Amino acid sequence: MEIVRSQRKTSSVDAIPILPLYRSAPTIEVRLEDFELFAIDRLRVLKGISDGLSRGKKSEEMEKLVTDLWKTHMRHQCASEVINKDIISHFVLRLVYCRTEELRKWFLQMETALFRYRFRLEILDAQRALMGEFDLPCKQVSNSEFEVLKEKLGQLSRSIAQPLPTADTVFFKVPFEEVPDLVSTRRVLIVKGYAYVAVNQVVSLVVTHFRSLLSKALVLTNRKWTSTISGQEKDRLTPIVEALSTSYLGPDYSQPKEFVEISIKDIDQVANTSFPLCMRHLFDKLREEHHLKHGGRMQLGLFLKGVGLRVDDALAFWKAEFSQKVGAERFDKEYAYSIRHNYGKEGKRTDYTPYSCQKIISSTPGVGDHHGCPYRHFSEENLRAALGKMGVGGRAVEDVMDKVRNRHYQLACTLTFEAVHGTSCDAGINHPNQYFSDSQKILQSKNNTVT
Known about the structure:
Distance between the termini: 61 Å
Number of domains: 3
Shape: elongated
């Protein structure tokens, strides 16, 4: 796959089925802009799937979710280019997610889930064509063999609440080790080392092979990335690839929108009602210790900027706290510049953006630091205490802790939001400033209802 800057229409890929198997990178030229944009669109799909799975959506709900996500994000203005966008985006994200064990694990899980639901949505002829592409070790059961096993297959169907098989039901005979998930849940008949898999269950066989091939491919891609690609492309593709795995894909919170500004006199009240746990912890530590290290100042300072604290008020707020520990003169000399810098008033005049959840989660706070994501970095005891201070208790705390143990930190924050505000948050929390904005909307709506 060659990356180019010039505009060029790609050729059609006639030999590839509707659902690609991604065995080799396409030999087509890709504009640098499409390289990144296609990957971001696919990443939106995978993150949507991740959120759906984390929330425990049922199989039918996941099928609808995947269909909606695909239609929304993987469209192309030229219908003939949709297949190319599909393949290109997959291989770009292979580069992005091949680089560490944790990234590979997440990508493998999400791509396998995407493949599973897309395969299930294909018509039977397309499914058979894909099975042929995989050269799977399976054989269709003949009518005579079906008649011999009909009674046992019927007993199995009744035990798993499936329709009874008929002469028209297609079964495949495969070595039992090829469908471990069906065997472990006792959803197939096993005779002499072979599992008898109904056509509506064959997705398990196909997905097992897809996952195995992709897992091996990610390891090989990592070797190639480490040995050659990252060095050769250090000035062009490498920065894009390294940034994509922590990309924030939601709205821009560099400037407040719904809520024009907050003042110093309001800040304690809104911190108590509308700050997410990560920012409330930093705010409390600042009030307690009258100081934060650089990581904490950046994380909290940009958040406050995004929720509408003006630069003059920000300077006054930070000075009031820091001067209690380092003195007003030292604050003006060592700290005021960086605050003005965050607001684009110094240096390159860059309008810095508040940190997203992904960036905060991926940070590595050291001893004495208070930034980062509490759901990831706190001990269980400290996290339970912090949630209690926010008014989260009972079953809600256990639900949050369950998500934390499974490393679903943003979903843990979402559950906290729902418990604090007594309402659902279907979109999930992806940014601290989104938490604040959604909280303020709910509180204002409740106030308007009361009045």
